[in-house]
Automatic annotation (TrEMBL):
SUPFAM superfamilies: MFS general substrate transporter (SSF103473). Keywords: Cell membrane, Membrane, Transmembrane, Transmembrane helix, Transport. InterPro entries: MFS, MFS_dom, MFS_trans_sf. It is found in: Cell membrane. One of its GO terms (molecular function) is transmembrane transporter activity. The keyword Lyase does not apply. Residues 24-458 form the Major facilitator superfamily (MFS) profile domain. This is MFS transporter. One of its GO terms (cellular component) is plasma membrane. It is a multi-pass membrane protein. It comes from Glycomyces buryatensis.
Amino acid sequence: MTTTAESTAPAAAAGTPERTQWGAILTLGFAQLIVAGGMSTLAVALPSIRSGFAVTEAATAWVLLAYALPMGAVAIAAGRLADKADLRAVAVLAMGGLAIFSAASALAPTFGLLIAARAAQGLIGGLLFGMTGKIVVTAATQAQRGRALSAITLLMTIGAMGIGAAGGLIIAATSWRGLLWVFFGLAAVAALALAATVPSNGTGLPRFGREFAVDIATSGGAIVAFLMSFEYLDTDPWISLGALATSVALGWLWTRQRTSAPTVALLRRPVMAAALVSLTLMSAVAGLLNFGFPYLLNDVYEVRPELISLALLAFIGGVAVTTPIGGVLADRFGAGRISMVGAGLVLAALVPLLLVGENTGLVDLAVRIGLLGLAFGIFNTPMNAHLLASAPPEQAGTAGAFMATTRTVGTSLGPVIAALMWSLASTPLDGYRLSALAIAAILVLGTAAMATAKPWRATANA
């Protein structure tokens, strides 16, 4: 039976439907997959873009950054907008705009215009990312919210594997422009599907006025400056320090805005604050996935790139297996309680990875990586559900936006910490071990931060 108020709150709560609209949930997952794939999949096209425009490797990094930074900038403002906007109208605008700017990217005659079109893609795609939490709360009953989030996560996980594998084939058969045309078609289909499934209040598009612009300039600018501080940490520490100071200043300005008062009050809730800090720190596991493991396999085991990809797919496979289980458990026993259990399982799964040595075989390492994925699948979806349950229904969009933003910060922080630890070691194996220990320490802090608010006893909207 259900044991926490997270799953026993009355269905009559504001904005809570009487039954879950699974069409909207699955369409949202498909749309999110396209938005996320717009960055990760295009990474395989960077060498072709470099050759096509005769630019440097460093310049091609902006093909990804120009997409990611605007997405991070608009997320919080979009979440606040979602709390008072027509969700269907904004969702269709976001995916329709993503389709248009995907076509503009494919047609870009110069590298500068490609970067501009990619920035527009990220900016308008970020609208959907920022309002995902509100759509979930509006389309799913509270008793099935964990399963709804797990369906979105599972669709994105499996879809990311398929799109990642197909990206190289599409580029080989056509070009990097052909890959962008594929995203144009997928985004257009998603826009039509969102128009048919996402709930609407009939108010149409909101006014994107001064308040929205100030919100993006302050909160968005703070996030972009914070993320940019990581980019220059190893090459120019003074630029990194300046970016960090800019982030703090813009963040302070954002808190001083009159319209930010409800959001600041939400962030001061102990359960919400603890959950966001925990999610940020737990997301640093990306330091192992995106830095530690690839360099370990390349520098220590001398594994070919394609085998490195297969070994890392073990993590995604593990997440795919346990994500539905985590959603069901969150609905049955409470999202806070299960996310705490999941965090403990992640820590336990890290232990075998701390004991990796020169004689550890590739299959053995893949199994250990898979176990980490299994544990993370139990943590991830319940944690998202716990965050949404910790906010009042009228602030679900804001909570969802911070959920996406803190995860982005954490996944950016992890590889930076791992790289720093690696640089302090004398051998590649020692570099991996130092990196793994540092990430493990961050995850311990993340688990402890979550425990401070006693999530197993937290009540929804209390």
